[in-house]
Each structure stands twice: as structure tokens, then as C-alpha cells.
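Hey all, sorry for the wall of text incoming. These are the four entities for the joint prediction.
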Amino acid sequence: MSVHTHLSLQKDLRTRIETGEWRAGDVIPKEVELAEDYGCSRTTINRALRAIADEGLIERRRKGGTRVLAAPVRQAKFAIPIIRKQVEATGAVYRHHLLSKHIETPSPAIEARLRLKQGDEVAHIETLHMSDGRPFAFEERWINIAAVPEITNAPLEDISANEWLVNAVPYASGDVNFSAVNASAKIAARLETQEGQALFVLDRTTWFDSQSITTMKLYFAQGYKLHTQL
Amino acid sequence: MSVHTHLSLQKDLRTRIETGEWRAGDVIPKEVELAEDYGCSRTTINRALRAIADEGLIERRRKGGTRVLAAPVRQAKFAIPIIRKQVEATGAVYRHHLLSKHIETPSPAIEARLRLKQGDEVAHIETLHMSDGRPFAFEERWINIAAVPEITNAPLEDISANEWLVNAVPYASGDVNFSAVNASAKIAARLETQEGQALFVLDRTTWFDSQSITTMKLYFAQGYKLHTQL
DNA sequence: TAGTGGTCTAGACCACTCA
DNA sequence: GAGTGGTCTAGACCACTAT
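and here's what came out:
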């Protein structure tokens, strides 16, 4: 093994791009040449370049070579943890209150979001998530009973629907939207704020194996920020 | 080469986890065994497992083996493109208006955010981004002149500060926050909405080589959603 | 101390794509 | 048709860590 690892190579190659040695649009040397220059195997160079390409810094084409991209599309990554863990990560004590749970015929909007057949019923659940005794987020959720019939017997006083579902259907996929809304009177009361207060909202619909599981809206208390680094 | 590729292996291994053949907490077979089972080399198995580990589905430890994680931390990825491209991607026509540009002594808050020395000056720029003639986002930005002196001569009527900076300092890193705020009277007027309207805000500070470049707040017009898939 | 993943290597063949 | 990246292989040694 030479003195280079795929990580040190990544760092070095990235630097050569960032300092402008290789400018946007330039074709950088081919793998075989880089391998000779660095005195390592082509496999290792390849791994380093692949990592950089995944980040969007370069673009690679067979025969065309490897190009530095002009406007790297910045990708922000957010972790979407279970709410309990999100609260506990701040050092606060988590609790949740099950405010209501009904089995009902969904509104047309919910029926469409979950792509239900007519007559399918949903569990409609309202939960308040607390951090050190103060409201952290208000959750309104609808669950496709046909997909998860066990929900009707779940002990949602002890474990939040959020967490129960993650355990019951851990590897689901889904759509996520973030937006801002003015608090309605009802939601303002839940979150102990004023009607009209701007709230950060997470809107999520979850699927497993092309069957809809649940759709939910999570209204975070005033002042919440979603943070990440680039 | 066997019939397996690292991609087909990834898919197969993922399925075995998602269907519950390997449950949360289980240790799955070691690389050498999987290589024998699938009739491929350990290198290929390793690559497939590494990819799955990057997604947060499994956890790998030397000597400890590979474990299925209990609560996979879902990672949402968002692309953060140049605003012009974001608008144009919807098929709309993009334009921007430079509302103001001043060289000034920063407020203490901005000074702290950019970690400026006392006496350092900033360019304070206000821009309105338009989509098909309607307000799309209002941008308030402060630029560290010491870091990017060329900004004082940049033709910001023709190219938005957003885009100019991406070209001038393409490979910067930074912090990003998303939040919700009520529109002030001034911002409401810019975005042609009402005071108090909940707005989705992107708050970003950018660094290059541990020197601060710029900090900005981007207020999106009413109804904006940030979307992604899991 | 022993077992498992982390990584590197040299060589090979393949697949895409540019000219 | 030829050049470049994409990938696989077999073997090797290393680094971490569980027991």
C-alpha cells in the first residue's frame, strides 16, 4: 500500500478543485494517470473519485472523462428522527399526551392522500409532544387501518403513534414536505401560543410496498428551526 | 464475474432486512459467508454492505459484525439550487430586482454571525426574486467585503447576488436553518402578502476556508413548500 | 488474543460514448 | 472503433474491538 488512502486522496482531490487548480468545466486527468501520479492503484483512485462524484462536485463519463461541475448542487441532509429522541437529544425530558383517537371515515382530502378505496376507514389520532413540560409539537395523524389493523389496539398512551409505527413498519418510504402556516385557534391553544403565530410544519405521507400507511402533519412550537450543515 | 453486481446485491440484502428475514438487532452473516452464499467475491459484498450502512440501515463493527439497526434514522436529502434554477425548473420565467445595496457597518448580530473584526464593513443587499412576474422570495444578505472585495463592483442588476457568489466562491461550506416567521410589514409588502402571514425562511451562513463569506435570509412567498422523498 | 470489517493491489473484462 | 470509467476478482495485510 502506498501512503495514500481513499480518504486522503478524496481530501487532496477536493482541494485541487476548491483551490481552482482544476476549474469548473475542466476535464481532470484520467484514473490511470492519477494512479501513476499518486503511486497507488487505479481502484483506490476510482473509489475516491466516486465519492466526490456522489457529492456532486464532478461528473464522470465513460470515454468522456471526469469533469469539474460548474454549479455544484448543494445537497443538504437532514436526519428525521423519532420525536422522542429529537427532544431527548437536547437534554430535555420527553412526554406525550394522546389527545384523541377515533376510527372514522376519512375526508376526501385524506382519502386522496392515502389513496384509499371508498369505505376504507382510518384511525385519526391527535398527539401533543412535550419537552420539559412545554409543548414541543402537535401531531395530527391518519392511519390506514387496512394496512395496519393492529393500530386499533396499540397502547398509544404509553408509546406515541409516531414511535409505534416506526417499530411496526420500520422500513417504509415516503414523501416529506416542510412549510410554514399560521396557527389556527385550536392549534395555537395546543401549543400555548397565539392564533396566527407562524409555525413550522412537517407534512409526511408514508408508504410500504406501494400501500399507504399513514399521513400526518406535525406543527412545531414557535421558534423551531431545522438545522443542517453543508 | 458471477451473476451478482454490487447493485443487485444491495437490493437483495435490503429486501432481506425489509421483509424481516433479518430483524432489528440481529447480526447478519459475515462478509466471507455472504460471499460464499452468493458466489461472489468478498470485495463486492463489502461494497454493497457499505452502501446500505451509509443509508443507516445497518451498523458495522470490526469483530462485532454487522447488525440491523432498530430505528433507522431517516435521512432526507434536499437539493439547494440557485434560486433562478429553482424557479426555471417549474417552467416559470425568472427575474430578479436589486432593491438596495449599501456598504455599511454591520449590526452586532451580523458582526457576530460573520465573526467580523470591529470596523470590518459589509455589503448589505436586498433582492426580490420573481417567478412569472410574481414575488417568489425576498432575500436579505450581508457580504463580508474583506473576503470578497469584488462584490462592490459586481453587476447585481444583471446577476443576482446569490448566483454571483456561487460563481465567485463555488465550493463554500455553511450552516443552513429552516424556520417559520410572521411577515413584517416591510417583507409582506415586498412579497405582496399581508403582515403576519406565515413565511418559510431559509437562513444561511457561508464559509470558505474558515473565513466567513456571507449570511442571508431568504423569505419565500406564501405557500412555498420544501419537498423531498425518503 | 482472535475474529471481523476496512482497505489496498494488480489484473481483467465490460459498457458506454465520443469522434 | 477506440478510449474512458464501471466493476469484479483473489489475495493480502491492517485496525479495531469483543471476549
